[in-house]
Amino acid sequence: MGFRGFFLSFLLLAFRFEVSISSSSSLACNSNDLKALTGFSNCLGSVIAGWNSVASPDCCNWTGVTCDSSTVSGRRIVGLELSSRKLTGKICESLADLDQLRFLNLSHNFLSGSLPDDLFRLQNLEIIDISFNDFVGPINGGMCALSSSIRVLNFSYNYFAGELPKDLANCTSLHHISFHRNSLSGSLPLHHISFHRNSLSGSLPDSVFQLQNLRELLIQDNRFSGPLKNGIANLSNLEKLDISSNLFSGILPDAFGSLTRLEQFSASSNQFIGRLPISVVNSPSLQMLILNKNSLSGPINLNCSAMKNLVSLDLGSNLFHGPIPDGLSFCRRLTVLNLARNNIKGELPNNFKNLDALAVLLLSNNSLENISSALEILQHCKNLSMLFLTKNFYDEEMPNGGNLQFQNLRGLVLANCRLRGSIPQWLRSCTKLQLLDLAWNNLGGRIPSWFGKFESLFYLDLSNNSFNGEIPKSLTEIQRLKSGDISLEEPYTSFQISFNTRAASGQIFSYKQISGLRPTLDLSKNMLEGPICPCFGDLQKLHVLKLKENNLSGSIPGSLSTMTNLEILDLSHNKLSGEIPYSLLKLSFLSAFDVSYNQLYGEVPKGGQFDTFPDRSFDGNNGLCRGGCTHESEKTPTHSSREKKMKIFGWQFGVGAASGFVLTVSCCFMSGWVLPKPRKRKKAATRIGRI
Length: 691
Ligand SMILES: *[C@@H]1O[C@H](CO)[C@@H](O)[C@H](O)[C@H]1NC(C)=O
Ligand SMILES: *[C@@H]1O[C@H](CO)[C@@H](O)[C@H](O)[C@H]1NC(C)=O
Ligand SMILES: *[C@@H]1O[C@H](CO)[C@@H](O)[C@H](O)[C@H]1NC(C)=O
Ligand SMILES: *[C@@H]1O[C@H](CO)[C@@H](O)[C@H](O)[C@H]1NC(C)=O
Ligand SMILES: *[C@@H]1O[C@H](CO)[C@@H](O)[C@H](O)[C@H]1NC(C)=O
Ligand SMILES: *[C@@H]1O[C@H](CO)[C@@H](O)[C@H](O)[C@H]1NC(C)=O
Description:
The chain is an alpha/beta fold. It has a domain at 1-199: Ribonuclease Inhibitor (Leucine-rich repeat, LRR (right-handed beta-alpha superhelix), Alpha-Beta Horseshoe), CATH 3.80.10. The chain is built from 7 helices and 42 strands.
């Protein structure tokens, strides 16, 4: 054979050997890990596609599994990423045999039962995200006894109850902890645990205040109570603190001086009282301070020389009093300001002119004065997009000056101020308007025809004023209500604000986004006259049309049947005559219909949604009858017209109802309302609500 041949075969051998090593390491996952994973999979109520030890023996290739590259006894599993896979069933102990596991993400599934105790004995675990499941029970101690490497814990949106783990303080690497939407408490003894959601109370355990590396503490939507303790001062690395929607009470501790990295503090919807702590109103790091819905009082004494970074300030729905301080205008980055629902008096300070970044200003429900001056000042805030001033400026005159300019205004809510005057000329400059609410004032005159030029307008409420004349035809030319092909730009979505609108019924709705409102035209309770233009049929994107309590006359146009999205139609208390058109049966989304107190006659259409409307919707019309009509000669429909009605009823309603049903059902599916498990529904709805 000779040297050359020997060398070649050596090379070949070495090559073979090399190949066999690398293919064996890429083939096999560690056999203990495979066993653990199979055990885990057996406890699930659902099958994960691709998880099959016969067809695919290397579990490192299974969906959602990440392995390291160790070669000694097969590759080790370091990550399990199985979020949003509709998993059901339980997690059993065998998961805890994956002793090299570093990250575990099982969020957004339907997993239930309690967590295996041994899960927290996993030495290497750094990230646990099991949010949005149905886990119950206490989170047993021992969580951080061994595994001090945990950095991220997300237990939100489950049904955990009982105490927070006692040994949290041993989780020294923890920088993100999120327990919101559970029923955890801090101080109740374990034997008081109830699995019922929101049934416990207790204070935040002191162990939390020893987590000095914590950067985020998010425990909103629980039932924690008692004061927020001074221990919070220990968390000097905190960047986000959210304790909103709990039952915390007492005064806010003056302990924020050491939290030099705190950017976001939200404590809204609690029962805090007293004044704003000195260390809060002097924080140079805070960007977002959200304290709405408490009982905080005193003056608004922010030190804007210190609070250089403040972007969003929400002090709404408290008991703050006094004037709006001049100094607030030195918070030059202020973009969202909510002071609504307090006891603030006086005029808007002149130097608000300097708030260049201001985009959202909510001042409703206070006792402000001098609307002319307020608008004169605010027009200098070029980015102003949402302006809510409801319930202020009582009995003042609406300033009409054509020189005011609000080019970026998207929402103006100036209702219930008993304002006198008419629709002001300066409104014409607000070409981006989406939402206009001037209801419950004493405004008169005509509704100007230039309203038709507001192509983004989709919510208009002018109810309960003294507008007269005819409804301008141009209202039916509003692009957004006709075709909806104008996309709506939300004024400020990166910081959550919620605002209220008042439906004519007096009900108050709270919205996080303008686009959450239904497209609405409400001209009720004015002195409008003339006929309802058949062109209203063009408003195919309108959901709510209210024209009640006016002097409208003529007949109800049959063309209203082309307002295919209409849900509410209120034409009551007018002088409408003629018959109710049978074509309205095509409105398959119509859920409320009122034509009471008019001069209508003939038979109420039968079938479709009409069978669901109560008799009182038709009261006060002498000539109107419902079922079993006694036909007087001139009111009896001719044979041919009756045949036509039957025909309409016959197929068009069928199509309308069927497509309505299909649409509704598919919407339900898309929005997550229809889910395999009925008990999931409520939770699904809250999820949508928060997105
Ligand atoms: C877990 O997965 C979900 C969905 O993919 C993701 O939104 C979330 O950020 C993940 N959690 C962590 C801690 O990475
Ligand atoms: C924290 O860890 C130490 C050991 O590192 C242990 O002795 C102690 O009991 C733990 N604390 C809690 C509350 O579990
Ligand atoms: C603050 O942290 C220190 C050091 O970890 C600890 O000794 C102290 O008890 C903590 N204070 C509170 C109120 O938890
Ligand atoms: C306001 O903040 C500035 C800058 O931090 C500081 O010098 C001043 O003393 C503070 N004023 C009050 C009244 O706290
Ligand atoms: C005004 O808004 C625009 C667009 O959102 C933004 O780019 C700009 O920075 C804002 N101006 C100020 C002074 O914040
Ligand atoms: C009309 O507005 C006034 C306030 O201007 C209010 O007191 C009254 O209740 C409102 N009426 C209706 C029917 O909405």
